[in-house]
Amino acid sequence: TCCLVIRFDLPETVASFIQSRGRARMPQSEYAFLVNSGNQKERDLIETFRQDEAHMNMEIAFRTSSETFVGSADRVYKVDSSGASIGSGYSISLLHKYCSKLPHDEYFDPNPKFFFFNDLGGTVCQIILPSNAPIHQIVGTQQSSMEDAKKDVCLKAIEELHKLGALNDFLLPQQDNANEVELVSSDSDSTEDEDPRGELHEMLVPDALKEPWSSSEDLVSLSSYYIKFNPVPEDRIYRSFGLFVKAPLPVEAETMELDLHLAHSRSVITKLVPSGFANFGKDEIVLAQNFQEMFLKLVLDRMKFVSDYVPLGRHDRSSSSTFYLLLPVMLGNDDKIASIDWGTI
């Protein structure tokens, strides 16, 4: 929690003055400004802000002024069946929330786009919604300012989306699956025990990793690939590992290189070297699967190693969606797998 705020530039308004100081939330926090030595004008400005703040606090506490602010009327859309309602001022954030729930990936950002047109009677705002929304565009009515025009057209969009069933009677985005896990926004309040990741990602399994084998087979033949690591800089040697899969990988995977970026400006250029087929007996395939289970628990799930004993082989692999082995290997002279390192396994 912050206990000290230092401003290197002076605030322009009393609101900015108060907002900056509010960053320091601890008791007995300090709020400091850097001003030019001997510049009385800057000191007077800070003092003016302090007086304005005191006047605002007194006004809030005692309501000594009878002045009123007359702003533009806030239109409201209400759903009679549920009593849910929303004003034009909040319709903008609701529209953004609805668009964020639309199906998307890393290449498609489902945000609404706003366009403004000035007419003799005022400003008109037009919204272009994402292509997978039930409506493509909404045009608002003439308003006195761009802000009011944006509020007007957003409220109109919310009304149309509700009538089309995209928003339910509580003005919330419809869920395609009632049992779907609700994603938590990354800027919402969370506790220390919650997962800090703000979103969930679908796991896509390549076809080459879907073809299973059976532990009951007397002989299992798997396509083998040496995983070649070239560190940059070349100041260390990595242990040799091989990838073993039932179905051969696509040709493009055999020529592909991946540049893996590590800490401290290090990287590792990684490629797969086809090494033919490897045959596993019934006992060998079980041993290899148990080694991989132990190996991955060590690397990915260290909590499994709280105890001195970790049971292996209890996982029902028939229900798994992926089938592959990562095993230590020994190489021949041509950078291909000569044999599996059964001693290490």
TrEMBL record:
Keyword set, alphabetical order: Hydrolase, RNA-binding
Coiled-coil annotated residue ranges, if any: none
A Pfam family it matches: Dicer_dimer
Limits of the Dicer dsRNA-binding fold domain: 91-181
Single GO biological process annotation from the record: siRNA processing
Cellular component, GO, one term: nucleus
InterPro entries per UniProt: Dicer_dimer_sf, Dicer_dimerisation, P-loop_NTPase
A molecular-function term among this protein's GO annotations: ribonuclease III activity
Protein name per Swiss-Prot or TrEMBL: DCL4
Source organism per UniProt: Pyrus pyrifolia (Chinese pear)
